[in-house]
Amino acid sequence: MFIEKETNIDRPAEEVFQYVKDFSQIYEWDNQVVEAQRLDLAPIKEGSKFKIVYSFMGVTQDLIYNIETIGSSADHHYLQLSARAKMFSATDRIEVHSVTEDSCRLVYSADIKFTISQTEPFVRVYMERVGNVLMKRLRIALEKANECEPPQKYLNPLSVPFWFTRKGWNQRRKGFKATLSCPRKILITGPTSGLGRSITTTLAAKGCSFVLVARSSSKIEQLKADLYNLGFEGTLKSYVCDMADLKTVVATCNKIIDDDQVPDVLINNAAALYAKPLEIDGIERTTVVDLIAPWLIAQKLSPQMLAGSCIINVTSGGMYAAGLDITELKRARKPFSGSRAYALAKRGLDVMSWGLNEKLKEAGIRVHSMHPGWADTPGVVDSLPGFHKVTKRWLRNPFQGSDTIVWLAMNNPEQGGEFWLDRVRQSRYLMPAGGRSMPDDYLRLSNFLGQFSGPVASHC
């Protein structure tokens, strides 16, 4: 069965081709693809491979796509890929032809061979319809790449569990726009497992370079080895740092500055949820690791960051269960609840994100806050085993949980200071704000955090 579709796109041909040749981004424009990742990290060329999780008439299949041919001329770009699954094999060809300097025509064809040939007549109508939708989605994704979905003002407490799950992500991704890669220098804390590892691998495939900050030297060296073994050709710098030791956090930041490794994108991802309370210099350690350490890193590095840079703070949907409480941030109430201490710290991190964005606007630096939904990571297994056991079938995988972080890092949307889930700006509270005020909350929080930051950063 041969299907061919085409569409005109109001973007330069070269830009469109650079986007579509990274087949790991197909989930942004093909509603049938529920996950897509690169299997190697070298520059894309003949032989590059992609893992595509494809939902075909309700049946999910893993496909390994291989680039057979790829080429470009002044006004014509082309790409041919092949894949084989239990039910069918496919050869896909994408051609991009220049029309004007700022527009092009894209032709997508698929030659599909089914294991059981008798099924072809029944599938053709379905595939024709899918092809029409695919071309429309691709055109919209590229032409509106820099547009954001309208903000969601309030959350319905009854629907929150759905939106935090894998099904919620799959629903929202149907409105995703194209992520136009622009390689950047990324500093990420906690990159060795879970969301952090997924973020690092995905951004490595987009040509980014890295400053990796982790607590374990052996794990960080293993991550670097894994990336290089996958063909990564960019720069990797690493620093060992325990977020519970604020003196080490400051020393690490100073070392990063001295080594001229200040990033374009700072991702405060490292965090911990503890089962037992412990105070560090009179402050609950959850607050130290999950709030004060990210604050310090931002304070120390932001004066050196250039206009157009951004800071991404990874918070948690758990913050909906807590308001800003400075007293409890200092000392956990009894009986101790690790989940509450975590929620309080993440609420503080979100307030900090809003306030720091206000302070850094003049310097051209944006600060984004996001949460990944309910993701199946080693941290969740270790910290919330009961929750993991009950919800495992609905949890997002790390790729889905980290998608918005990758998107923020690449796109750095102009709406700084916002709180994001699945590329959509969210309400910070389940209910209307009432008497709460972000400026007032930030003032109270900054008075608390200021005792840890030393000299005030020059941008602030």
Uncertain stretches: 455-460
CATH architecture of the largest domain: 3-Layer(aba) Sandwich
What is the mean predicted local confidence, pLDDT? 91
Share of residues in strands: 15-25%
CATH class descriptor name of the largest domain:
Alpha Beta
Report the helical percentage: 25-40%
Overall morphology? globular
Lateral strand order in the biggest sheet: 10-9-8-11-14-15-16-17
Tell me about the biggest sheet?
Answer: 8 strands, mixed
Number of H- or I-type helical stretches: 14
Radius of gyration equals 23 Å
CATH H-level superfamily title of the largest domain: NAD(P)-binding Rossmann-like Domain
Count of β-strands: 17
What does this structure look like?
The chain has 460 residues and is α/β, with parallel strands linked by helices. The protein folds into two domains: 142 residues, START domain (Alpha-D-Glucose-1,6-Bisphosphate, Chain A, domain 4); 294 residues, Rossmann fold (3-Layer(aba) Sandwich), CATH 3.40.50. It is 37% helix and 24% strand. The strands form three sheets. Strands 10-9-8-11-14-15-16-17 form an eight-stranded mixed beta sheet, with helices on both faces. A seven-stranded antiparallel beta sheet has the order 1-7-6-5-4-3-2, with helices on one face. The radius of gyration is 23 Å and the shape is globular.
Strand-helix topology:
Elements: E1 2-9, H1 13-20, E2 33-38, E3 49-56, E4 59-72, E5 76-84, E6 88-100, E7 103-114, H2 120-143, H3 160-164, H4 166-172, E8 185-189, H5 194-205, E9 209-214, H6 217-229, E10 236-240, H7 246-258, E11 265-268, E12 279-280, E13 283-284, H8 285-301, E14 310-314, H9 326-330, H10 338-360, E15 366-370, H11 378-383, H12 385-391, H13 398-411, E16 419-421, E17 424-425, H14 438-453
Parallel strand pairs: 8-9, 8-11, 9-10, 11-14, 14-15, 15-16
Antiparallel strand pairs: 1-7, 2-3, 3-4, 4-5, 5-6, 6-7, 12-13, 16-17
Helix pairs in contact: 5-13, 7-8, 8-10, 10-14
